[in-house]
């Protein structure tokens, strides 16, 4: 009797009251307890297999490392490795968290750069933060960087247009795969991007995201990998809706604890390093540990880094296994938990969630040295109150040692290095997966993030060992599709950028080159007659001068046309930042900035002021069959006093509908002072047929309203909400409604 290749379903084999069919029950070893190992363990725990977990460290979790922060009598938990996730590219991890009932909370992901101890600083949190140093308003380098960011956001997408055509060639090592291997440095050189864009934006972001040295980012990082990552994460949009970032409410360790709850202690081997995995004659696999012991398993999952996996199997590895796994390398990074503010930007306006610090090399003058230094502001990322716990910072590879009195922990983490060879090897991994009873899992098999590691463990458990997941597995590699789809607006923006690039940037560069050349005396090629120029020289001089004038005139005209096209989105962006046009400013939340100008300092009621009457209006688009009303007509608040109001929405139709709300404040001049800490606007709201929900609005009026002479006499403010039916483009992407102007 032959044994079926695929076992029957979990329900028929391992359900209560039915015996386990031992023909399909396997003894499985999971080596490594990072995100990949934990996910494989969780999935296999739901199967009929006998699972064992090996971990070289004294704790579980790998980069998921939650520790205790102390400030006097107060204590709180803080993560030092894995910190954040988002709603767009972490589908499997989010589904898992829902299953194990681990809660998440929204957080803020912002990025800033500081160079040479504050000599140059900027951040992307707002227009004010971009020009945190006012001198940069007059810096051509800064404006060129901003232009190149917009150009990169549009034209880097072209790298993805032929990506799928090169996949097969890359797998086979063919010459057609050469374009796919183009590095970031090569792409930037080929397209003529500025040094400011390279050194102050793209390289810092790349180095920070992948924990890779700046030099390796410049020379080795695959351009397509970076662009696809940025596109998937909605980072290639100058003004766009980006996915909500989240952090675990009770820190990362909470999901590790949820998985390990009930796992038999005699199946867990902490402080046990696996040194070797060899093949047995009967097809099974022997696991050897550092203490001289060994055990035989039917299947082994190496949930380690790629280079560690190669070291473990090296003695029995096939040539193909060695060739593929040898392409994967890692970098070692030191992490310090501390409160030393010298590892933050000098200007608090540039303080961000992620703060990239770098130095110029004294010998070469390069902007980046061969090191990443990145400070995570945990007060922002994990909502740790600064007034209670002080500054809570996690710095990776500090440029200088933090003050020892501020240090509360030091750690070492290894991160995958992404090179063209590693990207090619990722495509070849299926050739060695599930061979000789060995599978490979880890974040290094894709982009290197938590979702990648977690998903790789789930996929191996499902595909190689037939574990049944309680949700549909999602491959987020192409979460937005394989190729971008360009619309009319994209093409128009591209045209404007090209016009500016050709007739403004290029002309300016030529003019600068001419000025530089004019400072160098021309060589005398013939006899000189008292230095008097000939008529030919005079005519040539004025011809060049007239041509330059014509170029400048044409540049000004075309630049004006381009700015006229770009003025509408620019105006909307400014409105969203400043509150012009009746658009309220959305507060960043109480944990973002606790300096004198921060939100915590502003939430102090001005008791000497008169209370302001805030009324609430609501309306619904004709195409949306909803009933939408405020639960209260008005509230009366002091400047600096928070208030909570509710709206009620009811879907009166017999079908499920997704709606989205926009808002405004009247009178319009009050908008800069009307700040909402939390609201339901501009987010998709799904109501089932006949469903009724309450929607909260948490807001305050800025205390500065009492000092503005233009606000004198204003006693009533009205908050207006309008609900529309949600719209989506051809790719199924949500199209946010335009703000009410």
TrEMBL record:
Cellular compartment(s): Mitochondrion inner membrane
One Pfam family it belongs to: CtaG_Cox11
Domain of life from the UniProt record: Eukaryota
Protein name from the UniProt record: Cytochrome c oxidase assembly protein COX11
InterPro entries for the chain: Amino_oxidase (IPR002937), CtaG/Cox11_dom_sf (IPR023471), Cyt_c_oxidase_assmbl_CtaG (IPR007533), FAD/NAD-bd_sf (IPR036188)
Domain Amine oxidase: 36-310
Gene Ontology terms for molecular function: copper ion binding; oxidoreductase activity
TM annotation in the entry: 486-505, 549-568
GO cellular component: mitochondrial inner membrane; mitochondrial matrix
PANTHER family assigned: CYTOCHROME C OXIDASE ASSEMBLY PROTEIN COX11, MITOCHONDRIAL-RELATED, CYTOCHROME C OXIDASE ASSEMBLY PROTEIN COX11-RELATED
Job description of the protein: Exerts its effect at some terminal stage of cytochrome c oxidase synthesis, probably by being involved in the insertion of the copper B into subunit I.
UniProt topology in membrane: Single-pass membrane protein
Lineage: Eukaryota, Fungi, Dikarya, Ascomycota, Pezizomycotina
UniProt cross-references to NCBIfam families, sorted A to Z: PRK05089.1
Keywords: Membrane, Transmembrane, Transmembrane helix
Organism of this sequence: Colletotrichum spinosum
């Amino acid at each position: 009797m032959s044994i079926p290749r695929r076992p029957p379903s979990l329900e028929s084999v391992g359900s209560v009251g039915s015996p386990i069919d031992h023909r399909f029950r396997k003894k499985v070893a999971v080596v490594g307890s990072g995100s990949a190992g934990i996910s494989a363990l969780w999935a296999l725990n739901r199967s009929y297999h006998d699972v064992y977990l090996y971990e070289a460290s004294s704790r579980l979790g790998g980069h998921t490392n939650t520790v205790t922060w102390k400030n006097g009598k107060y204590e709180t938990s803080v993560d030092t490795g894995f910190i954040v996730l988002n709603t767009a590219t972490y589908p499997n991890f989010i589904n898992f968290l829902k299953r194990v009932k681990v809660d998440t909370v929204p957080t803020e992901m912002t990025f800033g750069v500081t160079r040479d101890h504050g000599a140059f600083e900027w951040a992307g949190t707002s227009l004010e933060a971009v020009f945190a140093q006012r001198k940069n308003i007059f810096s051509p380098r800064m404006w060129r960087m901003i232009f190149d960011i917009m150009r990169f956001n549009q034209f880097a997408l072209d790298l993805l247009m032929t990506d799928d055509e090169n996949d097969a060639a890359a797998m086979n090592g063919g010459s057609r795969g050469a374009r796919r291997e183009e590095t970031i440095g090569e792409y930037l050189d080929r397209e003529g991007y500025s040094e400011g864009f390279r050194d102050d934006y793209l390289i810092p972001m790349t180095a920070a995201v992948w924990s890779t040295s700046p030099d390796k980012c410049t020379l080795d990082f695959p351009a397509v990998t970076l662009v696809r990552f940025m596109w998937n994460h909605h980072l290639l949009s100058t003004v766009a809706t980006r996915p909500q970032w989240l952090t675990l409410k009770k820190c990362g360790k909470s999901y590790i604890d949820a998985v390990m709850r009930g796992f038999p202690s005699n199946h867990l081997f902490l402080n046990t390093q696996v040194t070797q995995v060899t093949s047995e004659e009967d097809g099974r696999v022997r696991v050897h540990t550092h203490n001289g012991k060994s055990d035989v398993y039917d299947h082994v999952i190496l949930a380690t880094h790629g280079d560690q996996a190669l070291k473990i199997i090296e003695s029995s590895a096939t040539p193909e296994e060695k060739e593929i796994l040898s392409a994967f390398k890692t970098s070692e990074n030191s992490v310090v938990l501390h409160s030393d503010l010298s590892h933050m930007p000098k200007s608090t306006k540039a303080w961000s969630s992620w703060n990239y610090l770098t130095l110029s090399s004294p010998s070469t003058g390069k902007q980046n040295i061969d090191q990443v230094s990145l400070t995570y502001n945990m007060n922002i990322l994990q909502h740790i109150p600064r007034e209670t716990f002080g500054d809570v910072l996690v710095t990776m590879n500090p440029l200088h040692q933090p003050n020892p009195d501020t240090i509360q922990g030091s750690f070492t983490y290894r991160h995958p290095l992404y090179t063209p060879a590693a990207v090619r090897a990722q495509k070849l991994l299926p050739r060695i997966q599930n061979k000789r009873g060995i599978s490979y899992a880890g974040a290094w098999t894709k982009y290197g993030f938590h979702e990648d590691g977690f998903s790789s463990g789930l996929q191996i458990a499902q595909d190689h060992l037939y574990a049944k997941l309680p949700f549909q597995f999602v491959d987020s590699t192409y979460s937005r599709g394989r190729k971008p789809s360009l619309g009319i607006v994209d093409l128009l923006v591209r045209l404007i950028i090209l016009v500016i690039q050709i007739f403004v940037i290029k002309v300016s560069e030529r003019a600068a080159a001419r000025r530089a050349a004019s400072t160098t005396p021309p060589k005398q090629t013939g006899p000189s007659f008292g230095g008097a120029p000939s008529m030919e020289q005079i005519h040539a001089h004025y011809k060049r001068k007239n041509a330059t004038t014509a170029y400048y005139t044409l540049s000004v005209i075309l630049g004006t046309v381009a700015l006229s096209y770009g003025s509408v989105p620019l105006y909307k962006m400014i409105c969203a930042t400043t509150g012009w046009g009746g658009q309220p400013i959305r507060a960043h939340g109480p944990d973002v900035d606790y300096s004198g100008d921060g939100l915590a300092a502003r939430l102090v009621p001005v008791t000497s002021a008169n209370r302001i009457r805030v009324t609430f209006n609501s309306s619904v688009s004709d195409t949306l069959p909803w009933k939408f009303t405020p639960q209260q007509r008005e509230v009366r608040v002091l400047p600096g006093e928070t208030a909570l109001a509710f709206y009620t929405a009811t879907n009166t139709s017999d079908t499920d509908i997704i709606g989205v709300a926009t808002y405004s404040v009247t009178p319009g001049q009050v908008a800069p002072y009307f700040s909402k800490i939390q609201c339901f606007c501009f987010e998709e709201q799904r109501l089932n047929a006949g469903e009724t929900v309450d929607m909260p609005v948490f807001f305050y009026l800025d205390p500065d309203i009492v000092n503005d002479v233009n606000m004198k006499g204003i006693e009533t403010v009205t908050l207006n909400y309008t609900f529309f039916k949600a719209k989506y483009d051809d790719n199924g992407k949500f199209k946010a409604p335009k703000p009410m102007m």
